[in-house]
Amino acid sequence: MYELVTILGPTACGKTHLAVALAARLKSEVISGDSRQVYRRMDIGTGKDLSEYTYEGRNVPYHLIDIVEPGSKYTLFHFQEDFLKAFRSIRECQRIPVFCGGSGLYLESVLKAFSLSPVPINEPLRASLSNKSLEELTSILASFRPLHNNTDTDTCTRAIRAIEIETYNKEHPQELRSFPSIPSLVIGLDVDREIRRQRIANRLEQRLKEGLVEEIRSLLESGVSADDLIYYGLEYRFVTLYVIGQMGYDEMVERLRIAICQFAKRQMTWFRGMEKRGIHIHWIDNTMDTDSKVDTILSLLKHHTS
User: Fold this and answer.
1) Residue 116 in contact with residue 169, Cβ under 8 Å?
2) Which residues lie below 8 Å from residue 204, measured CB to CB, with a gap of 6+?
3) What percent of the chain is modeled with pLDDT above 70?
4) Residue 39 class from Cβ within 10 Å (0-12 exposed, 13-18 middle, 19+ buried)?
5) Which pTM was predicted?
6) Among 278, 283, 287, which residue's Cα sits nearest to residue 297?
7) What pLDDT shows up at residue 149?
8) For 101-110, what is each residue's pLDDT tens digit?
9) Predicted local distance difference test score (pLDDT) of residue 291
């Protein structure tokens, strides 16, 4: 019997809206599987869209959003701990949580029950990697077992942290913490590539109008370092470079648009890899209206439990 419903897909495919609608029908709650929405005050760039957590007049509770301060290094280990707390609290009420996100590593750490350990900073390792290019770092990371998600390593800093984690886990296997196996119905959403590109362009334009640049300028003024924001990648990387004067506005917009499209492609590659690693994903027609999608998911749930 399923204890969880997971909704995954690339950026700009409508995951959150569907997750909220499904949770409303199930009278349940949403657990976010997004690696950046955990940070407070990073709202526009991470696409929190908290107004979406209302469906047909019903407020849908959410978890793992706005739980740590920007600049904090929130790790996969921390995520698993926080996920279990939220999951267990919802299950205690005899409800099926809806797990929603596009960060493949976070999703797979739950669906495949990764055993992890808290990983300390390794300054000598960081120093030895500091002069390597992102391509070289990605190649090093690929030499480890396929655990880390390359969608979360779009900067050298993030790639170095990923190598640091893999190196530590390889050297300290006895310290791994077990994680429970959670039966989950996994639903995949995707859209045609050209439609997705247009959605990404439209959404980026909208977020810039909503104050994305001002949000990042405010974070910098509050004391969050430029390096920390650049570490978070995508919007925070390119807009920070613009704000600190290392990139022009038009160049920032165009390079960011391309980077988000590339990110979405890498997300889909990761999800296909999850299928090869034994996770069955039910891909549903994303052209259906929301109610039809929810009905399809509920039918799959009922079929499995009947």
Assistant:
1) yes
2) 253, 256, 257, 260
3) 94
4) buried
5) 0.85
6) 283
7) 46
8) 989 999 999 9
9) 96
What pLDDT, on a 0 to 100 scale, did the predictor assign at position 174?
A: 58
Asked whether the beta carbons of 239 and 217 are under 8 A apart, the reply is: no
Task: Report residue 5: phi and psi, to 5°.
Answer: -115, 125
Strand order in the sheet with 184-188: 62-63, 30-32, 98-101, 4-8, 184-188, 282-283
Q: Is the pLDDT of residue 151 over 60?
A: no
**Three-state DSSP string of the chain:** CCCEEEEECCCCCCHHHHHHHHHHHHCCCEEECCCCCCECCCCCCCCCCHHHCEECCEECCEECCCCECCCCCCCHHHHHHHHHHHHHHHHCCCCCCEEEECCHHHHHHHHCCCCECCCCCCHHHHHHHCCCCHHHHHHHHHCCCCCCCHHHCCCHHHHHHHHHHHHHHHHCHHHCECCCCCCEEEEECCCCHHHHHHHHHHHHHHHHHHCHHHHHHHHHHCCCCHHHHHHCCHHHHHHHHHHCCCCCHHHHHHHHHHHHHHHHHHHHHHHHHHHHCCCCCEECCCCCCHHHHHHHHHHHHHHHHC
The phi and psi torsions of 4 (rounded to 5 degrees) equal -155, 145
What is the predicted pLDDT for the residue at 148? 47
Token pair listed for 95: 């409800």
User: Token pair of 224, please?
Assistant: 């969050």
Report which of 37, 45, 269 is spatially closest to residue 150, judged by C-alpha positions.
269
Residue-wise pLDDT for 94-135, tens only, equals 999 999 998 999 999 999 999 877 778 888 999 999 888 888
What distance in Å separates the CA atoms of residue 157 and residue 177, rounded to the nearest whole number?
A: 25
Model confidence at 175, in pLDDT bands (50, 70, 90)?
Answer: low
